[in-house]
């Protein structure tokens, strides 16, 4: 059920990043609207300026507003850039860059 106004900009509501092992983490990104999964791929998210590997698999929540993906994370923080993501109503998110702190420590 889509209830967000088409005039509302698409933004990130929340991020969570949990350490999986010393070199990877599970990144969860929640948006204020349902995301069109056809607009999310390895070139949509950048970690410290590098796109994700082409083999990255994205998982979407049932209501479509949250994505999860395993990301390379050799450090305890990184810069996340999101670009080219669209909502189901066709709103393209403005390029956004934020600092992410990983829960749990490497090593």
Q: What does it look like?
A:
About 0% of the residues lie in helices and about 40% in strands. The protein starts with 11 loop residues before the first strand and ends in a 6-residue tail after the last strand. The chain is built from no helices and 8 strands. The radius of gyration is 14 Å and the shape is elongated. It is mainly β.
Q: Total helix count?
A: 0
Cα distance spanning the termini:
43 Å
> SSE string, helix = H, strand = E?
EEEEEEEE
Overall morphology: elongated
User: How large is the share of residues in beta strands?
Assistant: 35-45%
Q: In order across it, which strands form the biggest sheet?
A: 1-2-6-5
Mean pLDDT figure? 92
Unreliable runs: none
Structural class: mainly beta
Percent in helix: under 10%
Main pleated-sheet profile: 4 strands, antiparallel
Work out the radius of gyration: 14 Å
Summarize the structure.
By secondary structure, the protein is an all-beta fold. 0% of the residues lie in helices and 39% in strands. The strands form two sheets. It has a four-stranded antiparallel sheet, with no helix packed on it.
């Amino acid at each position: 059920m889509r209830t967000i106004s088409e005039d509302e900009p698409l933004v990130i509501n929340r991020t969570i990043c949990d350490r999986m092992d010393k070199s990877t983490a599970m990144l969860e990104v929640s948006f204020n609207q349902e995301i069109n999964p056809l607009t999310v791929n390895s070139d949509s998210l950048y970690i410290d300026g590098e796109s994700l590997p082409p083999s990255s698999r994205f998982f979407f929540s049932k209501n479509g507003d949250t994505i999860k993906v395993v990301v390379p994370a050799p450090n305890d923080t990184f810069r996340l850039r999101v670009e080219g993501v669209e909502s189901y109503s066709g709103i393209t998110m403005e390029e956004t860059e934020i600092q992410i702190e990983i829960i749990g420590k490497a090593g």
